[in-house]
Amino acid sequence: MDAIILQILNGLDKGSAYALIALGLTLIFGTLGVVNFAHGALFMIGAFCAVFVQRVLTLSVETVDPTKTDFLGNPLKVKTPYVENWFGHDFGSAIIDWSVPLSVLFCIPVMVLIGFVMERGLIKHFYKREHADQILVTFGLAIVLQEVIKAFYGANPIQTPAPEMLSGVATLAGGIVYPVWRIVYFCFAALIIGGVFAFLQFTTFGMVVRAGMADRETVGLLGINIDRRFTIMFGMAAAVAGLAGVMYGPINAPNYHMGMDFLVLSFVVVVVGGMGSLPGAVAAGFLLGILESFASTTWATTTIPGINQIIIYLVAIIILLTRPRGLLGKKGVME
Amino acid sequence: MFGLNKKDSALLLAVAVLTMLAPFILNPFPTDSGLAQFNAGYPDLMQRFVIFGIFAIGFNILFGLTGYLSFGHAAFLGVGSYSAVWMFKLLSMNIIPAIILSVIIAGLFALVIGYVSLRRSGIYFSILTLAFAQMSFALAYSVLTPITNGETGLQLSLDDPRILDGASTTGSLPVTSLFGLEMREAVDMAVGPWSFTFSVGYYVCAVFMILAFYLAIRIFRSPFGMMLRAIKSNQQRVSYTGLNPRPYTLAAFVISGMYAGLAGGLLASMDPLAGAERMQWTASGEVVLMTILGGVGTLIGPVLGAGLIKYFENIFSKINDNVLHGWFSFLPDGIEDFIVTIIHPFVGKGWHLTLGIIFMLVVTFLPGGLVEGGQRIARMFRGKKKTGGADAAKTEAAE
Amino acid sequence: MSKTNLTRRGVLKSGAVAGAGVALPTIFTASSAAAYTNEPTGGTVTLGFNVPQTGPYADEGADELRAYELAVEHLNGGGDGGMMNTFSSKALKGNGILGKKVEYVTGDTQTKSDAARASAKSMIEKDGAIMITGGSSSGVAVAVQGLCQEAGVIFMAGLTHSNDTTGKDKKANGFRHFFNGYMSAAALAPVLKNLYGTDRKAYHLTADYTWGWTQQESIAAATEAMGWETVNNVLTPLAATDFSSYIAPVLNSGADVLVLNHYGGNMVNSLTNAVQFGLRNKQVNGKNFEIVVPLFSRLMARGAGENIKGIVGSTNWHWSLQDEGSKAFVKSFGTKYGFPPSQAAHTCYVQTLLYADACERAGSFNPCAVGEALEGFEFDGMGNGPTLYRADDHQCFKDVLVVKGKENPTSEFDLLEVVEVTPAAQVTYAPDHPMFAGGSLGTCNPGA
């Protein structure tokens, strides 16, 4: 029983990441009709926002400690972060400790800005183009973005640890032990998903965007500047992907190709959920996350060898064959 | 010629001449010059050009004509390679049975996957093919290791049966051949400072590519090709006229799968090793990029796209700082270092970056891919003849 | 029918000409001209450095490349000579190899066997490389080794840890300096016994591909021999990024040791996840729960950050070793690049020097002569103590380091501390050991 609950928790965790990325992808597809292959890269950039903040906070003064030597036998240079110098050792190291939550604040404006620039500078020109062209240009952009990150931060993963307080394990009801940060991540994801839905549902802005998703031309004819709203939506989708990335850092150390690892999966998630359906994307994200977790159990892999390798794709095939438009998809979208 | 109209004959002839003369064309720089780095006229890369050309031509039959975007085509290439290597292991080192088997197996594989995937269209079809290919890759890498030799890739060994060839006595692995003509045979020709390599393997591949290209032209111009285009432009209307589009699309899918199988078989014939990465989604994505980069739905585009991508992968990735310093050593030290620093991120380990930038530039400014670029340049030259000097500036700007 | 002025006869004629062109090569093959593939004729000799420059192992590849550049500099008489001064063989004089200046070409393996072979082929066919070296995974090493055997050049393996490279896939033209899964296990087992006792239950997570399997097999055999019980072995997909669903079942499995047969990004993530789940602070069966990572790499350990503290593993070499060879190498590498070399850099540097030295001693670049000079070669002063290049399988036998994640690192490079140097005799196995059986070297191939 414990094992099952653990795997459900694991699934919800993985699902959170899938759902957040898929949500952004669907927002972009639903509003702008663009297939964004650079969305994984946005997730990755989000994670590297945390790396950047961490690097900035740990910018250090070097003082030579003559009692110790470095690997070449020269006197060792000891680094002390500036923040520790300025705010005292305790408060300074606390700031560094909390660098991931702090970088959430940094990430939002950065990602929104990147979203705006991407949409106005590049994607805008591809609204009327074929999906194939959109795929090529966004894929090219994804490569460029990840190579730029690689040029700055190298190819190896870089740890962005969770704050000390949130990095242990929590004992849940029933004596189940689970990492605190993973619970935080799930709650954070739920919050963002809820926020996006509330925004679309209860604000005038959201209403217009939903109307635009349904029938762009008519909304335009009503004299509403739908383009500007779509730009804002793109920024929002980028921010959602970025936030998913920042908070993911402590779970798995960010590396420059993590975006590509998630890209294919998140497309599968979007399609299984149904193109253009926001609730579908979220539901499919959690569903596939949980199924993937269960397929990884020893019981599953001994029953069907290799099932953990293929489960997501297998489920995608079955769902697409039995429910032609995905779980919650509407008729006529991208067929 | 061969039932083609004048324009197509000219195109076929041009392709044939270019592929036959490729060893000269691809080695424009003298061997000792600094620019020899850009020479692509060595057997392995020339073989890759034409083999991936075949792959892309086949992909274009499906994507260019029917508009169905398959994201799992690499699976057929991989299956073809595995079948070919198994033929080398079990039957004979002659490439003919290997290639025949790889085309057949890839065709069957495509039939099964196509039959299921073509029940859906649009992005749902893309995801279905992607899912099948990723499953093939994941299983080939792990569970199916007895058949595929997993991570290492399937390769020949000394104790393979090779029924037709008899036991090897030399203690070294046999090489692939076409009725005794070894694929790795090559002859070097030195003309002054230039050196050109003619490889048997390359010419075998080239002949296959010309045949594949010819077949593609025939398919493009046939009633069948017309039908496929009709499906692309409006599938519903096709259905309303009482025609069932499914058999046509399935046929196109299987044909393009067989092209991929042929490419896979040839890859294995040139170098008898089949790795699982050949089936990964990135490999499927690569052929999509080749086709779009070259020009979707055009005959020659996919071949150009394939050439460009393979050129980057093999030539740009080999330019290191040492080479850069060699090129610019004539400049004063400071300027030399400066220029090397500027170029450094785009070559060697940065070849991905350059490729990504090229994707973006091509698709933004040349919506029809490289073919459109060629047409524009041709148009400019034609325009220049008529209007004279005014357009000369434009031509330069385009370059 | 035909709308062009091309006649059927004309086509036939050109076909015949083309046919003749294809037939030509059999007459004029290069075989008569040279004694072996890419025989260097001018004043230079070209080596091919084939390392991952893109993909997850790009940093490791970059470090290998630094080591190669350093080796070339030393061979050509530049720099401080590095390990050439401590190397027991004194054949190298700092004037290149056999008087020829050493030049090199580089390529990108992308850590894919296909791409690696393409890159190696271009070095052999286009650039005339006489030796190929490098790589950061066993799949690539085996694939490129096979290619070099066919092409008739020497392959000096870079970082490859699978038993197969010098086991079932060994080749006469291929040589490996790096250690392997069996050696890791043989070196680790006694240390684990001292640290954690003989009554332990081990749970293995294994990367689901050839290298993972051979290492898991080796570790399980060695630990079972000293009394440990293997509770479970779970295979994880290579593409896995989140290992939580593999780690969670460990909690209630009754196991008190977790063995992570992962490398690179897999290792960083599975270790991070294991620590997240509190495994390091856990008590099972009245003992502290322990995690073992059989193959450690400092570059990757850095990616794992705090999580590696106190975790035991093995490594081929570490910069903190205090023998003369290691000190000389760390000094020249550190002076040139500003940080200490990794084990990948070390093995690549040593391989290059060993190759050059073998050429000098053989008096030829002929792969067969070089191979003969390397076979059974005993040397010292290269950082691993007295070492033997065994003739039976072209594997180096040398001391293996057992290391532990350092609790209080003094710098960002000071992540591992050497727990024990296991002597070569303890990790040596018979050439026909079952884990290495199934292949044969074949005969050396000088090519053309």
TrEMBL record, chain A:
GO molecular function terms noted in the UniProt entry: transmembrane transporter activity
Parts forming coiled coils: none
Record lineage: Bacteria, Pseudomonadati, Pseudomonadota, Alphaproteobacteria, Rhodobacterales
Family named by the database record: Belongs to the binding-protein-dependent transport system permease family. LivHM subfamily.
Keyword field: Amino-acid transport, Cell membrane, Membrane, Transmembrane, Transmembrane helix, Transport
Protein name stated in the entry: Branched-chain amino acid ABC transporter permease
GO biological process per UniProt: amino acid transport
GO CC annotation terms, alphabetical: plasma membrane
Entry's transmembrane regions: 16-35, 42-61, 102-123, 188-209, 229-250, 262-291, 303-321
Membrane topology type: Multi-pass membrane protein
Keyword Transmembrane annotated: yes
Signal peptide interval: none
Top-rank taxon: Bacteria
Subcellular location(s) per record: Cell membrane
From TrEMBL, chain B:
Keywords from the UniProt entry: Cell membrane, Membrane, Transmembrane, Transmembrane helix
One cellular-component annotation, GO: plasma membrane
Entry's localization field: Cell membrane
Pfam families linked: BPD_transp_2
Domain of life (superkingdom): Bacteria
Gene Ontology MF: a single term: branched-chain amino acid transmembrane transporter activity
Topology in membrane: Multi-pass membrane protein
Chain ranges passing through the membrane: 12-29, 49-71, 91-116, 123-144, 200-220, 247-267, 287-312, 324-347, 353-371
PANTHER family noted in UniProt: ABC TRANSPORTER ATP-BINDING PROTEIN (PTHR30482:SF17), HIGH-AFFINITY BRANCHED-CHAIN AMINO ACID TRANSPORT SYSTEM PERMEASE (PTHR30482)
Identification of the protein by name: Branched-chain amino acid ABC transporter permease
Organism: Thalassovita mangrovi
Automatic annotation (TrEMBL), chain C:
Keyword Signal tagged: yes
Residues of the signal peptide: 1-35
Domain Leucine-binding protein as annotated: residue spans: 44-406
One BP annotation, GO: amino acid transport
Keywords of this entry: Amino-acid transport, Signal, Transport
Recorded superkingdom: Bacteria
InterPro entries: BCAA_transport, Leu-bd, Peripla_BP_I, TAT_signal
Family assignment from sequence similarity: Belongs to the leucine-binding protein family.
Protein name: ABC transporter substrate-binding protein
